[in-house]
Amino acid sequence: MEIVSFKVSQYRSISGEISSDNFNGLTIVGQNNSGKTNLLKAMRVFFEGKFNPDLYDYEKDKPHGVKQGQTSFAVRFTFSESELDDVSEDLSQDDDDDDDDSIIELGVLGEQEEPSNSISFDDGSSKQQESKPTQSRGRKLSLRDRYLQLFNMIDDSRLNSPQNEVTVHLTISNKNNYFYTVFKGYKRKPEVTSSMYTSVERRFIEKILSSFECVYIPSSKSIDDIYHNLLVPYVRSEVASAMKTSVQVIHDKLLEVSEKITNEMILSGIDDCSFMIKAPPSLDELFGRFEVSIKDTIENVISSKGMGLQCLSLFSSFKSISERKLTLGKKTIWMVEEPESFLHPSLGRSCNHIFKSLMDVAYVLITTHSLSFVSDEPSKIIELYKDDAGVTKDKKHEKRFNAVASIRENLGVRFSDFFNISSSAVFVEGITDKQYIESILKLTSEHDEFKNRWPFLRSAKVDEFGGVSQLGGFLKGCYEFISKDVPVISVFDGDEAGVKERTRLQSYFGKKQIRFESNKDYISVRSGFAIEGLFPDDFISDAMETHPSWFIGGKSVDADDVIEPFKVQDNKKTNLLNFFLEKCRVQPICGWISRWEKVFNVIDSALRDKSESITNKKRTEDTSGNTSDHQAA
C-alpha cells in the first residue's frame, strides 16, 4: 500500500486540525517551538502506537487547556496494482486465517524470531530486530482479501463498489486506548454482528500497520546510534544472506571443534560431560564487529572524519537499508529532524539528493530550518506557526515562490543575513569613516551628558565598503531588499566624489520608485567636505600648519577666513585621525562636538523611524495573515 495523505488533531500543541494531501517527501518548516516535532511524532503515534504504548500518554499529549475531545488521526492509503490483483477465489467473510495474524517467522538457522515494527533514536534504548523471510503454510489472505472481507460487511448506498483506496482512522481515548476504524460512519449489513466486523477490521488494520516500519531520527541524532542500530544490522543480514549455503559447513565445523574439546576433557578424566558449541539462532548473529572507514585523501575510520561527512555517509546507507526492508515486506518511513544540524552548508545539496533518491524506495518526512531542504512542490510543504494562544497552525501555498518567501520570513531568514547584518546598520564609504564614527561614539560614552544619547546609533553596526563607488554599487544591488529587513542609513561625504555618487543613487532609486531621501535614508556630512570636516576649523588649521605633508595642496580659507574644502593623502588619513582624536581627549567636549552632534542626531532619528516602520509593517502583516487563516478555517 502507498500512504497518500494524513490528518491529525488534538495532539500536543495541535488543538485544531493539520492535514496534508501528500506524504512522501513532505517538508515541515517553521520557527523554533512552532510544533514541527509534534507533527512528526504524531505520525509515529499512528503507525507505532499500537506496538509501543509509551509513545502516547493522554495527560501529557492532549492539548493544554483542552478539557474535552480526543486525539485523532486519519491516514489515506491506496492499493498498488499488484495488490489489487492479489485476490483469492471464493473469498468469504468467514475465512479464518489465524496464522496471518500471528505470523511465524523463521530465522536463517531455523529458530523463531519476533519481528519489530519500529526504530527510534529518540532515546538511548533504541533497538532493532531484523525481520526474516517467512515460511508460509498455504495461501494466506492478502491485504486486498482483508479489505474485500470488510467491504462485504458494509451495506451503504454511499459505497457501492470496492475502492482503490482506504482511509484508516485512529482515536485515542483518555484511557490511552487505541481505536482504529475503517469505513467510519458507514452502515453494516444486518446479519453482521459487531464482534464479527471488529475481528475482520482488526486483522485488516494490523496487516496494514505491519507493512510499514518507522525510523525516527531526532535533531540530537547520534552518529553511533545510527551506525549500530541501522547500518550494522543491515550489513550483518546481507552477509548472512550471502552465506546461507554455508550453514551446514558452519554446523559441521562447530561440531568438529566441540568433539575435539570433549575428547580432551575425557582424556583428563572428565568423562561424564560433553562440550558443545552451537551457532546462534540467526546466522547474522555470528558476525560481531565491522570496521567502517572513509577514504578521501587518506583512509581512516569513519569516526575520525568530520561530523558532516559521517552523517552524510550514514544517510547514504538509508536507501540500501530500505531496499532490504522491502524484500521483507516492509516499507520504511524515515522521519528526520533537521538534517542540516550536523552538515556544513556546502553538503546540503548532496544530502538533499540522497533524500530524493531515498524517496524512490521509502517515505521521507523532514523537519528543517534550512531552505535547502524545502521541497520543490508547494503541496509537499507544511509551514507551521503558533498563534497568540500557542496553538500550532499551518499555512498552505499554491506557488513555490510564495512558499519560499513566506518560509524565509517564518524562519527569520532575511536578505540582510547574507551580509551578516542582523540589526540596524550604518553604511559608510571607507575605513577611516568607520573609525571616526566609532571613536567619537566611544569618547562621548565617557561623558555624562552624552553617554545615553543616540541609542539607535550606538547599537547599530557600522560597515565600510572601501570607497564611495563601492558603497554606491552595493546600494544599487542590495538596498531595496536589505532596507525591508533592517534599518539602514548610508553616510556620504560632502566632497565632490560623495555628492556625485549620492546624486547617481537618487536618480537610480527614483526611477525604481524606491525612497532614498536625505536625512531619512542617507546622511550627507558637511557640504563640500569629507568626514574630517566635522571637526572644528581650528583643529583642521592646526593640523595643516603642523603637518602640511598630510594634505594635498596647502591650507586655504575663503574671504570670510573660513577653512575651505581640502584633501588628505591616503597614506596619512590614519595619522590625521589620531591627531584629531588626541585633541578631542584633551579639550572640553563642548569645544568640538557641535558638528558631530548634529550628524549623530539625524542618524539616530532616522534609524529610530525606520525601526518603528519595519516593526509596524511586520505586525500588520502578521495580523493580516492570522485573519486570513481564521477566515479560511
In short:
With 633 residues, the protein is of the alpha/beta class. Among the domains are: 2-21 and 37-208, no CATH class; 416-616, no CATH class. Helices cover 39% and strands 17% of the residues.
Give an overview of the whole structure.
- This protein is α/β, with parallel strands linked by helices and 633 residues long.
- Among the domains are: 2-21 and 37-208, no CATH class; 416-616, no CATH class.
- Helices cover 39% and strands 17% of the residues.
- It has 19 helices and 22 strands.
- The chain has a seven-stranded mixed sheet, sandwiched between helices. A five-stranded antiparallel sheet has the order 2-1-4-8-9, covered by helices on one side.
- β13, α11 and β14 (363-368) form a beta-alpha-beta unit.
- α7 packs parallel to α9 and α7 (223-242) packs across α10 (318-327).
- GO terms for molecular function: endonuclease activity.
- It comes from Salmonella enteritidis.
- This is ATP-dependent endonuclease.
- Pfam families: AAA_15 (PF13175).
- Residues 126-136, 623-633 have a biased composition (Polar residues).
